[in-house]
Amino acid sequence: MTGPFVLPTSERLDSRIPPDIAPSDVARSWFDKFSAALESHSPDVANLFLEDSFWRDLLALSWDFRTIHGLRNITKYIHDTISSGFRLLSLSLDALRAPALQRPFDDIALLRFSFTFQTAVGKGIGTCNLVNTSGDWKAYTMFTKLEELTNYPESVGKLRNTSMWHGDWQTKRVADAEFANSNPTAVILGAGHVGLDLGARLQALGVRTLLIERNSRVGDSWRNRYKSLCLHDSVSTSAYSFPSTWPAYPAAAKLGDWLENYARTLELNVWTSSTIRHAKWDESSQMWLLDVQRDGTSRSLKVKHLMFATGWGANVPKLPIIADQDKFEGQVLHSTQYRTAEDHLGKKVVIVGACTSGHDIAYDFSDNDADVTMFQRSPTMVVGSQTLDKTLLSPLYNEDIPTDIADQISSSLPFNVSRQFHRRIFTTVAAVMDKVLLDGLAKVGFKTYLGPDDSGVMPLVYERGGGYYLDTGASQRIIDRKIKLKSGGNIKRFTAHGLEFSDGSHLDADLVVFATGYGDPRAMAKEICDPEVFAKLKPLWGLDPEGEVRSAWRESGHKKLWFAVGHFSMARIFSKLLALRIKAEEEGLIRQ
Q: Which helix (H) or strand (E) holds 130?
C-alpha cells in the first residue's frame, strides 16, 4: 500500500450530501462517466476516483488478485491492463443490490452500488463505494471479480444436463471415479471442505478432477478432531446451502457427515485411504508424475495441475522444544491428537496455549470436572461470539440476504479499509458489549487485547491464522476459576510430575496438551515434492504488500502447483476463482 491511510470521514472530505439524495441517480451519473472514460482510447479517471482510493481486482483485469491503492496507481493499472477488454455493462437495480447510501459510522457515508461488466474472456460483477467530497461524488473503493468465462460456463442451473436418458448410471459412475484408462486433469490432495468446494467448481467447468484423501471417509478431517468441537463461525458450502433447520454453528462431526454427503451428491471423484507418496514435475511435458498409494496398491498418474488442500499448516503440529520431556512420567499430546476428556478422567491436566483449541479443550475438561490449568504464554484477542455476530456478521450474513450477495459485498472492501473499519468497531462497540467479559478475565489475570492495532480478529486470521478466541463459554469458566490459569513466563523444563517455569513455579500434571497451532502450511508439498520444487515456492499465508493473502488460491511460485486453504467463506469465494483460472489456462486464454 502506498502512502498514509485514513478513512473518508465527512470532515476530511467536506462532504455535502443533500437530504433528498437519489442514490440511483448519483450512481447512474458516475457509472455513465466511468463507462465513457473506459471506452476512450486513453481512459482518464482523475475526476472520478478519490486521491486515496482503492481498486480490488480478482481475475477481472489481470490473472491475479490485486489491490491497487491511490489514484495514480489505479490510473496506471487501467492503462496497463487495457488489453483485458474491461468495459461496463449495466447497473444492478434489483432490491438487494440497488444503489443505496450506507452509513457504517456517523461520520462516514458510502453510496454503494453494484454492476456487471465484460472482459475479453468473460463477465463479472463489480461493487463500488462512492463518497461525497465538496459536493462531488468520487469512487473510494472499486471491486471487480470475474464470474464466468464467456465460452466455458459452469454446468449449473439452466445449463445443467437435461437428458432424460442416463443408461447404466451406477456402472458409469464407478468407472469415472476409477480413472482406469485415463488420467485426471487436476488432482487435489485433501477432501475437506476446501478440497471439495474446489473439486465441485472444477467439475462444473468440465475439468476432470480427482481428490486424494488420506482418511477412510470423507469428513473424517472433522470427525477426528476433539469430539466437543463446534464451528465458531456460521458456514455454508459453495454448491448448496445447509438445511434451514440446521444450527448456525454445527458440530464438527455433523459437518463431517454433511461433507461426505456433499461429495456423494455432487458425484465428486474421491479416493479415500489414499496418499501421494511422491510428486515429480516433468519440465519437458509440463506435467506432474504422481505415485499414489491407495488401499495398499500403487497407481501412477500424469496430471497437469496439483493442488494442496490439506488444511491449516497441513495439520502438521507445531510443538515447542522443551528440555527434559523424556523425564516426564505423564502423557504429552498435541491438540490434533486430543479427542475427549473422557479418555483422561481423574488426571491433572495442563493445557499450553490460550487460543481457540486451548479454550475448547479446557472447556471439555471443565465439563468433566477435571483439574485443568491453562498456561497463557501471551495476550489473547477475545471477543464474544454473539458480539462478533451482531457487529460484523449478521448485518450481512443473515436469512434475508443470499450468501452469494453477502460474499460479494464482504469481498468488496480491501483488507486495509476493512481493518480500519474493524478498529473502530472493536475499540467502541465491541469493547463496550464485552466489557463485563473482558473485565472479568483481567481480574483473574487472563491477558487480552483488541488485536493488532486494536483491529480485532481479521488481521489475526489473515496474517497469523490464529491468536484469538471467539468466546463460546470457556471465558466464563476461567472467570469462575473452573479453569485454572497461569499467565506469563516461560516453560523452563519438564519434571517427572509436571512443568517447571522460568519464575520458579511448578504445575503438577499427568497430562500436558499443547494447543500451539500448526507449522508451515507448505509442509505436505515439502514432503512429497522434490527439493527443487519446494525451493521455488513463495511463502503461504500472511498478506502481501497490497493486502492480498500470499500464494493461496493464486500462483504459488511453481508452475501448475496450487494451494487452497482457508475458512468456509474463503473456500466459497476463492474456489470458483481458482477453478476459473485453471479452466482459462486449459483453454489457452492465458498468455504465458
A: strand 122-133
